[in-house]
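hey team, just a heads up i'm posting the complex here instead of the shared drive bc the drive is being weird again. everything in one block, sequence lines first with there labels, then the predicted structure for the whole assembly after. its two chains so it's a bit long, scroll down
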Amino acid sequence: MGLGSASHQISIHTIVLRGRLDALNAMDLRKQIDDLIEAGTVRIVVDIGAADFVDSAGLAALAKGMKECRKQGGDLRVVTPRNENAARVFALTRFDQVFVMGDSPDALVGSW
Amino acid sequence: MTAPVATHVFEADLLALRDLGGWLDEQLPSLGCTPEVIERVAEIELAVHEIAVNTIEHANTNEIRIELRWHSDLLHVICLDSGREFDLCEWPAVPTEPQVGGYGLMIVEQLTSSLSYARTDDGQNAWRMTFAGRAS
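-- predicted structure starts here --
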């Protein structure tokens, strides 16, 4: 009987964003995500657990990144904002059911 | 008696919009809004912010005038600008599948009791919203 083993290392990158994720800085986030994907990282966690405001432009930046990551066999997961005002936009658009979301980066990374 | 009105003219600039929440925080109590409406200030900010971002990105205008009025147990908000007329055909349908963008007006519709758009006789875009004590 032959036994073989192999270890696989996967690369996961976490982006941390505090304060506001809105139309003013959504493009910066999009660029950061695009750069990671271009460099071959398609498993990304965006930690907006400490965000206090998220608008539809911020949501769109996350959604675009998620779509691209999934197309390449990865995913973009989101730490749920603890501030209910920042979390609201996910519920209103039902994106809380589209993104894999969790309470901490560790919870999201651990489930990969 | 005329209902009290609060007015603010914002520069049509995304950075200027970050002052919106603080301004609403100050104005709602002085307009006489009920505590139930004041509690919704973050939702009101999000709705007005989405309209203003749409205006900045599509109307090509220099400033946005926001008027608040408390009347008949409703907060009435009007966003006015002198930019390009909004084409009602651009009002996005509610997405049936997740898509990357186009959620701004859908969010506003859910946060408001009413939402309407009109081009005024003097050539302004007028977005009118009302907010009740609870999301309706």
